[in-house]
Structures are given as structure tokens and as C-alpha cells.
Amino acid sequence: MLDDLRELYQEVILDHGRNPRNHRNPPEANRHAHGHNPMCGDSVVVYATVDDAGVIRDVAFEGKGCAISVASASLMTEVLKGKTEAEAKVLFGQFHDMCTKEGAQGGDPDNEELERLQVLAGVREFPMRVKCATLAWHTLSAAMAGTDDATTE
């Protein structure tokens, strides 16, 4: 059963890596930042349209990188639409913990967004890949803070 689940997760990562969702530059974006992972060369620009109430109305990205980096950016854009900036920050913290801390709760059935991101939890076993999975998230955080650049270093 565990092997079947691992295979399914790999398929989801490959699908998002090959066919990323929200891979575009929305002209109405009012936040953006460039992120770079100097260890592997992954590069991403994250764009967000945030309304006056702090709700993320649209989020997209452009860039290139490994399958994990692109899949993470793609999944991030899907789960954050309609969330507030505060909710996005909390979700990033939960996602980061899931990717870095042994025994961290991922796949919480009461948290649909975190459950969807569970496919990337396997990077915890490969510390060098954590930066690939979190690059887009760090970049979005920089965009929300009004910073133009983000790095995984």
C-alpha cells in the first residue's frame, strides 16, 4: 500500500512538473518577487493579485527548475487562491514543517490544502531537495513583504 501511495505522489509531482498550473504572468498582479536557488539553479518569479482586504485573488508563476520546484510552485498557486495573506503565511509554515521536521503533521484531513501538498512531504528524506520544494513559497513570502528577491540560502 505504501508503495502505491508513493507511486501516486510521484505521478502527481511529475504531472505538475510537466504541466504546471498557473504558469503565466498575470497583467493585473500587484505583487511579485524573483526567487533563486543557487544550489541547483532553479529560478522562479511569483506574481500575486491581492485585494484591499488582503485576499489573494490570483497567484501565478514563471520560471524553470526541477520537477519538484515546478510542481511545488504549481500546487502552491492552486491552494492559495482565495486565501488571505495571513492564511497563506500559516499554510507556508505548516508546509515547511511538513517538509523539514520528522513527525510533522502533514495530510491533516481537516486541512484540505495541506492534504494536497502532502505529495511533496517526501523531500524531508532528501534535505537538498527541501529548497526545491520551498523556493516558490519563499518567493511568495518575499512578494507579500514587498521584497523583490528571495533565495533559499
Write the layout of secondary structure elements.
Layout lengths: L1 H17 L12 E7 L4 E9 L5 E9 L2 H14 L4 H16 L11 H6 L9 H19 L3 E3 L2
Parallel strand pairs: 1-4
Antiparallel strand pairs: 1-2, 2-3
Helix pairs in contact: 1-2, 2-5, 3-5
Written overview of the protein:
- It is a single chain.
- With 153 residues, the protein is of the alpha+beta class.
- It has one domain (2-151): Sufe protein. Chain: A, CATH 3.90.1010.
- The protein is 47% helix and 18% strand.
- The protein contains 5 helices and 4 strands.
- The chain has helices spanning 2-18, 67-80, 85-100, 112-117, 127-145, and strands spanning 31-37, 42-50, 56-64, 149-151.
- The longest helix is centred in the C-terminal third of the chain and has 19 residues, at 127-145.
Number of strands: 4
Instruction: Name the CATH class.
Output: Alpha Beta
Work out the helicity level: 40-55%
Strand arrangement in the largest pleated sheet: 3-2-1-4
Q: Which architecture per CATH?
A: Alpha-Beta Complex
| Mean pLDDT across all amino acids | 92
* pLDDT < 50 stretches: none
How far do the termini sit from each other? 37 Å
Structural class: alpha+beta
| Beta-strand residue percentage | 15-25%
Order of helices and strands: HEEEHHHHE
Roughly how many Å is the radius of gyration? 14 Å
Global outline: globular
Major sheet attributes: 4 strands, mixed
Number of domains: 1
CATH topology: Sufe protein. Chain: A
Number of continuous helical runs? 5
